[in-house]
C-alpha cells in the first residue's frame, strides 16, 4: 500500500483506506463527484435561481409571483422534475449572459470546501479522471469548475439546447439526477466510476454503481435516511 498523500490527510481513516487502492489500480480510472452539498455546502443552482428571480431576469416567468416557492413544491413532488424546471425557467436568456452570471456567482460563492478540491487535484495528478456529475444547471457548475481550475468539459449537469445563442427552456436527456446520473456516466464518460462521492439520495444510484462509494455529511445537519442507508452499506463517511 502506498503512503498516504498530503491531500488525503484531512479526511477520515476510512476515507483514506477506500481511496488508496484506486491510486494503485491499473488502467483507466474514473472518479465522479456530486457538486452541491459535496464539493461545497449549500446549493449553487438554487442560489442562482433565487438571484434570477430577485432580479426579474427570467423572460418567460412572472417574477412578481413566488417562483422559488413553486420550484420547492415541484422538487417536493418529484426531485428530478423540479431540478429540470429550474432550467426550463431560464428559457429566453442568452447563453452568454447565463455564462457571465454563472462566473460571477462562482467567483463570489463562499461555500467551497477546499479539502475536496485538494483531493480531486490529487486524484487527477495520480492519473484518475475526475468528473463532476450534478443535478444543478450545467452552466453554473461548469463556471465553478473553471473558477477552481478544473476542466469544465468534465462537468455533467442539467442542460438544454440553445438556439440562436438563446436558451430554449427545453431539457436534454439524460437528466443528471438520480438514475439519470448513471445514464449520463454511461453515455458520456463510458465507464462506471471507481469512486463516486455524494451527500444525498440524489446521488444514490451513481454511488451504487461505483466500485467505491464515498459519502460526505454535515455535522450540523445530523443523520438522515440517506446516511443511515450508507451506514448499513458500510460506505465510508467524512463529516464536515
Question: What can you see in these coordinates?
Answer:
Helix 3 (67-77) runs antiparallel to helix 4 and helix 5 crosses helix 7 (138-147). 44% of the residues lie in helices and 14% in strands. The strands form two sheets. It has a six-stranded parallel sheet, sandwiched between helices. The protein has a two-stranded antiparallel ribbon with strand order 4-5. The chain has helices spanning 13-24, 44-54, 67-77, 79-88, 95-108, 114-125, 138-147, 179-189, 204-208, 225-233, and strands spanning 30-33, 129-137, 155-158, 162-163, 166-167, 195-198, 212-217, 237-239. The protein has a single domain, classed as Rossmann fold. By secondary structure, it is an alpha/beta fold.
* Strand residue content: 5-15%
Tell me the name of the CATH homologous superfamily.
Answer: HAD superfamily/HAD-like
* Tally of structural domains: 1
Low-confidence stretches: none
**Global structural class:** alpha/beta
- By CATH, the topology is Rossmann fold
Query: Which geometry do the CA atoms define?
Result: globular
Beta strand count? 8
Q: What is the arithmetic mean of pLDDT?
A: 96
Q: How many helix segments?
A: 10
Instruction: Compute the separation of the termini in Å.
Output: 27 Å
Task: Lay out the secondary structure.
Layout: H1 13-24, E1 30-33, H2 44-54, H3 67-77, H4 79-88, H5 95-108, H6 114-125, E2 129-137, H7 138-147, E3 155-158, E4 162-163, E5 166-167, H8 179-189, E6 195-198, H9 204-208, E7 212-217, H10 225-233, E8 237-239
Parallel strand pairs: 1-2, 1-6, 2-3, 6-7, 7-8
Antiparallel strand pairs: 4-5
Helix pairs in contact: 3-4, 5-7
